[in-house]
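STRUCTURE:
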């Protein structure tokens, strides 16, 4: 009864968004997993920051400490760390995940932020949004060439590209006509690139399954990208979920190679309004006004305040969805709040007084410091504020853990909700990374028989032991339920590389 494991990571889909898509008929295959194959939908809390590098590190390694955001300032190495198109994580990677047992040890980790201890990434990594650079990865060409050589794949990709492009353009025009402003930067390039990488990833997962790797972990990011551009409940985003469902169905059709499948997400999204639209000015500009003489550099964004040569100091502000970290960049270590308040007594209170800000967090020794409405708050008052976003005790523990990271900003700024939309420090119509709403509650779709309990998971790193246990029980054949035997034909991975694109079909 030995089985292998394939884990599909669908980025940015909250448990509630999945529930709506299941009920609304957008994801008929996932629906059939629940109705006919004994799957159930589990909710879990991803913790803070509610962003992919943090959650995925937790899931893959069981350790996501010192990942305070999607992008941050590493004071010791003086590096802006970020993921995505121009990832710089590799410059600091050596200090992460030491002594961890990766979920995908000797398996395949495809289109993920991290190598995950895997033997192969099939040439596709999330970190540069194109092709992998792991030491042991095969060349991207070995995946790309056979993929492109198959006219069915090309036709499929072209068809989806044309339909999505057409619909996206139509949505964009309609949104503008209704006075909405979808995040232009995301609309064409990222969405198109995601479709291509999405197709290539699906192809690589099926190839990895044919070759017998286990476990396999693969990330699909098209929903998250589209939801950033249009918002998580927009029709464009729902349409992408249909494509995702179709991809999962195709991957699932390869399960007869001896696999069990888990589908999960890393965080959700909430509708957002940009800080600049809500305030009238960019957050960096507001900070520069509060810090005369300083040069304020937004990442990603512009520079504000004093000139390069005339500045008395530099401030870096890293913007990631509804969370901003503020760093006094000349300092080699994090500043205690007392120290900061001694030199800039007005800064924390003034930021916390902005209508666009829900909460400011700082740290004093081992103590968390919270500011709201222009002053420090604590005790029952902070509980009352946090209760608007989640169970206050759990949220306080999540905030406190984030606040313990050396790489956190001297001040952490959380966007407020205005008319149901969270203030977002980037140019996004949907976002995550912060506190509040569906962004904090992703899902795991797994078989009931496996007896998975995620009710106590308050951080993605707590999902790791659950998945490791499932992986090991499937391998031993002791996981619950009646499982078909692994076909001996597929046991020897890496031996049967002679499959061509044509064998793999769709
Ligand atoms: Zn995202």
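SEQUENCE:
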């Amino acid at each position: 009864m030995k089985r292998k494991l394939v884990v599909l990571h669908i980025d940015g889909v909250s448990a509630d968004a999945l529930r709506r898509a299941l009920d609304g008929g957008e994801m008929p295959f996932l629906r059939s997993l629940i109705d006919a194959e004994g799957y159930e939908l589990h909710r879990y809390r991803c913790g803070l920051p509610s962003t992919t590098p943090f959650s995925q590190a937790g899931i893959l390694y069981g350790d996501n400490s010192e990942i305070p955001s999607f992008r941050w300032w590493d004071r010791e190495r003086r590096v802006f760390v970020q993921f995505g198109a121009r990832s710089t994580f590799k410059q600091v990677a050596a200090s992460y995940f030491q002594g961890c047992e990766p979920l995908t040890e000797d398996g395949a980790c495809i289109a993920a932020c991290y190598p995950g201890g895997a033997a192969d990434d099939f040439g596709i990594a999330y970190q540069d949004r194109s092709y992998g650079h792991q030491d042991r990865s095969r060349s991207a060409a070995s995946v790309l060439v056979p993929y492109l050589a198959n006219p069915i794949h090309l036709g499929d990709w072209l068809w989806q590209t044309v339909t999505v492009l057409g619909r996206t353009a139509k949505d964009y025009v309609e949104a503008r006509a209704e006075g909405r402003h979808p995040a232009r930067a995301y609309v064409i390039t990222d969405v198109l690139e995601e479709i291509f990488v999405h197709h290539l990833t699906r192809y690589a997962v099926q190839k990895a399954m044919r070759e017998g790797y286990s476990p396999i972990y693969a990330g699909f990011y098209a929903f998250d990208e589209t939801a950033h551009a249009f918002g998580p409940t927009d029709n464009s985003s729902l349409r992408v979920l249909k494509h995702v469902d179709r991809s999962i169905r195709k991957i699932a059709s390869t399960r007869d190679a001896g696999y069990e499948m888990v589908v999960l997400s890393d965080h959700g999204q909430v509708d957002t309004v940009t800080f600049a639209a809500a305030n009238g000015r960019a957050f960096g500009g507001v900070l520069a006004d509060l810090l005369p003489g300083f040069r304020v550099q937004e990442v990603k964004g512009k520079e504000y305040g004093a000139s390069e040569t005339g500045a008395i100091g530099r401030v870096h502000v890293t913007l990631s969805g509804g969370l901003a970290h503020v760093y006094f960049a000349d300092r080699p270590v994090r500043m205690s709040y007392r120290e900061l308040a001694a030199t800039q007594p007005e800064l924390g209170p003034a930021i916390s007084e902005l209508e666009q800000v829900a909460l400011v967090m700082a740290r004093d020794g081992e103590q968390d410091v919270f500011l709201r409405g222009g002053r420090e708050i604590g005790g029952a008052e902070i509980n009352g504020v946090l209760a608007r976003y989640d169970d206050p005790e759990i949220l306080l523990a999540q905030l406190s853990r984030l606040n313990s990271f050396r790489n956190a900003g001297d001040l952490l700024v959380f966007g407020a909700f205005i008319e149901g939309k969270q203030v977002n420090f980037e140019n996004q119509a949907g976002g995550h990374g912060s506190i509040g709403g569906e962004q904090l509650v992703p899902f795991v779709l797994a078989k009931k028989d496996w007896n998975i309990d995620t009710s106590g998971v308050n951080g993605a790193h707590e999902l790791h032991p659950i998945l490791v246990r499932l992986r090991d029980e499937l391998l031993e054949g002791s996981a619950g339920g009646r499982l078909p035997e692994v076909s001996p034909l597929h046991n020897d991975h890496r031996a049967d590389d002679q499959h061509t694109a044509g064998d793999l079909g769709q």
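REMARK: The pocket of zinc ion is lined by residues 12, 224, 228, 432 (CB under 6 Å).
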